[in-house]
Write a structure and sequence with these properties.
- It comes from Flexivirga aerilata.
- Pfam families: Aldo_ket_red.
- The chain is an alpha/beta fold.
- The chain has a domain at 9-157: NADP-dependent oxidoreductase domain (TIM Barrel, Alpha-Beta Barrel).
- The protein contains 11 helices and 9 strands.
- Helix 1 (9-21) runs parallel beside helix 10 (264-271) and helix 8 (222-236) packs across helix 9 (240-249).
Length: 292
């Protein structure tokens, strides 16, 4: 999300190279990230044979070209944004294309017709939704099923600080046969513990267009959750970020985690979380302290 904005081309190239060397394949982006600069930079880095070795996830329906957040999930806008994304990414298809968010302004039938066209025209291999509630996800899946197209995935915010998805979205996705990709599994960086002694000047909560979102994860019960993660990390001898990611990765219904590393050092820490298995007692303690 920060490529072309807070992450410069050099750091992006280094991070992508290390990610691929480690066996990583799946890259998540969106039409609205950095006003298109994110996709353009990714297209430059994948130009050549690298594209065929990657699974590209794209999203449409949110833009900031006017300076403020605009949601438009109409068929025309979605397909226009899809075409723009393909041009920027220098590819003829996305492996997974998602509606970026729900909107009450457009009939769901119209929104899903854009996903249907994307598949039948070859512009997307698979489709799904992002930031949908439980009933919304099932309704979307039912409409696509009528067209013999599966809704295979949903993206949701999910972490030890945001477990609301367990109430409806996780069981709904299971019913619909869709895998869930958890975004912000580190709670905007809060679960790394870097805010325990204040807000660093260069942190997400201090600067940038998403500072308000990150700052809202601070305080309240989050202090107790962060302390519990830190205690578990000390006991296991690993960074707090790896504990938080391991917890989310082991949750039922979660297919994968979407992480955003700003540099190579962060990436190495996040990738190593794949080797961390939380003992049952620690997982239960984290469940208890973070229960919604």
């Amino acid at each position: 999300m920060g490529w072309g904005d807070v992450v410069d081309p050099q750091h992006a190239e280094e991070t992508l190279s290390d990610f691929r060397d480690a066996g990583g394949t799946t890259i998540d982006t969106a039409y609205g990230y950095a006003d298109g600069a994110s996709e353009e930079l990714l297209g430059d880095l994948l130009d050549g044979g690298a594209r065929d070795e990657c699974v590209l996830i794209g999203k449409a329906g949110i833009s900031r070209t006017t300076g403020s957040r605009v949601v438009d999930t109409s068929r025309g806008t979605l397909l226009d944004q899809l075409e723009a994304s393909l041009r920027r990414l220098r590819t003829d298809h996305l492996d997974l294309w998602l509606v970026h968010t729900w909107s009450d302004e457009t009939p769901l039938e119209e929104t899903m017709s854009a996903l249907e066209f994307a598949v039948t025209s070859g512009r997307a291999r698979y489709v799904g939704v992002s930031n949908y509630g439980g009933w919304q996800l099932v309704a979307a899946a039912d409409l696509l099923r009528d067209a013999r197209i599966p809704l295979v995935a949903g993206e949701i915010e999910y972490s030890l600080l945001e477990r609301y998805a367990e109430q409806e979205v996780l069981p709904a996705a299971s019913y619909a046969g869709a895998g869930l990709l958890a975004w912000a599994p580190l709670g905007g960086g809060v679960l790394t513990g870097k805010y325990r002694r204040g807000v660093p000047a260069d942190s997400r909560a201090a600067t940038g267009k998403h500072s308000g979102w990150a700052a809202r994860r601070l305080g309240g019960n989050s202090d107790a959750v962060v302390d519990a993660v830190a205690t578990a990390a000390d006991g296991l001898g690993v960074p707090a970020a790896q504990v938080a990611l391991a917890w989310a990765r082991q949750r039922p219904g979660i297919s994968s985690l979407i992480v955003g590393a700003r540099n190579r050092s962060q990436l190495r820490t996040l990738l190593a979380a794949g080797d961390v298995e939380l003992p049952a007692q620690i997982a239960q303690a984290l469940d208890d302290v973070s229960a919604p």
